[in-house]
Design goal:
The protein has 357 residues and is mainly α. It contains 12 helices and 2 strands; from the N terminus they run H-H-H-E-H-E-H-H-H-H-H-H-H-H. Helix 3 packs across helix 4, helix 6 runs antiparallel to helix 8 and helix 9 crosses helix 10.
């Protein structure tokens, strides 16, 4: 290095190669912080800086049943609830089978069939409770069945959110070659693909149900399709239903699958519609011109200066991702943790605040 360049370095001017290294280090540090902000970790969680994974979390629970090992915990919970519901309902309706009137085949099969028809609110009317005890049981199981179906859809929605968060986490690692616009399009495309797949499965179920009714219940094609549609939509007029033992055995599985598939399809459509509107809102917020009124609204501390954090919060409020109550709650927590009122948080502030509380 020449004597002429030495004073420049002394005054704080770095060599271009050193500047690149510092910039890369800063960028890498920011990416690590961004990945760590995906969700708020517990205080006892430690992260590995190189792999960015939790090191002290216990391993996930391994189910004793092999087929449950790879299932999402939420889905395992729903399956256990469903098995408990179906077992209890079958036992109860079997014990009062003499108090249920209609076209009967086999005691146990009719109990399972009646339980499924009640849970899905299809209610054909081919089997109906005829005593006070059986009617009270039907009232209890129809409400608990609706709760179970709603719980299933809720867990399915939670599963979708978790999948999207996973895709976003992977997308942060792909930002070197893929921009944020392409990331949003990819998520939107995957959700649209799920809608198509679910609709295709629903069509197959309708065709299978129609063919089964024509072959085994000896219904004309139009009547079979009519029975299938009234079943899938839980309309259940009752003029057409599964009357044979084979038909009811098939109906136990087919009714559950078809009605839940239709509900899942509506869930995907609603989510796709909401996501489309959200994308349009985000696009409008990011492309519209900023006015002086916007700057005044974004100035949370009223000092006349808008820092990056204030601008981000204001934009998130416009996008509908957070509201004023969320911000107030976060600011209150910050003020409680800022023990020395310095406007910043340090380890000392956290220790003092937690010790005092």
């Amino acid at each position: 290095m020449s004597n002429h360049s030495a004073p420049l370095l002394a005054r704080g001017h770095l060599d271009p190669m050193d500047q690149d290294l510092n910039q890369n280090s800063l960028t890498s540090s920011r990416k690590r912080r961004l990945r760590r902000c995906r969700s708020a970790p517990r205080g006892d969680c430690m992260y590995n800086d190189d792999e960015d994974v939790k090191t002290d979390e216990p391993p996930p629970h391994r189910s004793i049943i092999p087929m449950f090992r790879d299932l999402n915990p939420n889905l395992r919970e729903v399956i256990l609830f469903f098995v408990l519901y179906l077992t209890t309902g079958t036992l109860c309706f079997y014990l009062v089978r003499n108090q249920i009137s209609g076209n009967k085949t086999n005691g146990v099969l009719d109990a399972v069939y009646f339980c499924v028809v009640t849970m899905t609110t299809v209610g054909y009317g081919d089997l109906v409770p005829s005593s006070s005890t059986s009617r009270l049981l039907a009232c209890a199981f129809v409400f608990s069945g609706m709760v179970l179906v709603g719980h299933l859809l809720s867990r399915a929605a939670d599963y979708l959110v978790e999948r999207q968060e996973t895709l976003l986490a992977k997308a942060f690692d792909l930002r070197k070659t893929v921009g944020p616009t392409e990331i949003l399009k990819e998520l939107h495309t995957k959700l649209r693909h799920k809608c198509y797949v679910t609709f295709l499965v629903l069509v197959v179920l309708v065709l299978v149900g129609t063919i089964f009714l024509v072959m085994f219940e000896k219904m004309p094609v139009i009547e079979a399709l009519y029975c299938v549609c009234s079943t899938v939509t839980t309309l259940g007029y009752g003029d057409r239903s599964f009357n044979s033992g084979t038909g009811r055995l098939f109906a136990v599985f087919w009714i559950l699958t078809s009605t839940i598939c239709l509900a899942q399809f509506f869930l995907y459509v609603a989510e796709l519609n909401a996501e489309t509107k959200q994308r349009e809102l985000v696009k409008w917020v990011l492309t519209r011109r900023i006015t002086n009124n916007d700057l005044e609204a974004a100035d949370l501390d009223g000092d006349g200066v808008i820092v990056a954090a204030e601008f981000i919060l204001y934009k998130l409020k416009e996008m509908g991702k957070i509201d004023e109550e969320d911000i107030d709650g976060i600011l209150q927590e910050f003020e409680q943790l800022d023990y020395d009122d310095s406007g910043t948080l340090t380890n000392s502030d956290l220790i003092l605040a937690q010790t005092t509380s």
